[in-house]
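@channel sequence for tomorrow's demo:
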Amino acid sequence: MVINMVKSSVVKLAGLLLLGMALTANAVSDKQKAEIEERIKPVGEVCLEGDSGCGAAVAAASGGAASPEDIYNTNCMACHATGAAGAPKMGDVADWSDRMGKGIDQVYANAIGGINGMPAMGLCMTCSDDDIKAVVDYILENSQ
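structure tokens (generated this afternoon):
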């Protein structure tokens, strides 16, 4: 009988301890909850064109075509300003005259399809073929 009372008391005590631990875990302040939510929130959001839920982000992303200079500065300059991986440098007449010997259509084709160390489209995933041709023209105009 005494053993049963001790067992019963131990079980009750263990139950109370577990209940106390559970209540303590749920006793997080609003400030602590906000901090936790801030730490675990997604890094970014996916906004699709035409989705009004993203607000200004979509408007900025679809704000019109970029100029050839903008495309060059964001996608091409790293290699074509330094000559990285054998890229012809903008402004270097000799670099471009060798390539122009094959004709402008071949230069366009190389820029669109990639050549040697240059990936297709210069990795400009939002550029059209016409955008790439305009950037080639921009580089050539600045390499005479």
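heads up for whoever presents: Confidence is low (pLDDT under 50) at residues 57-63.
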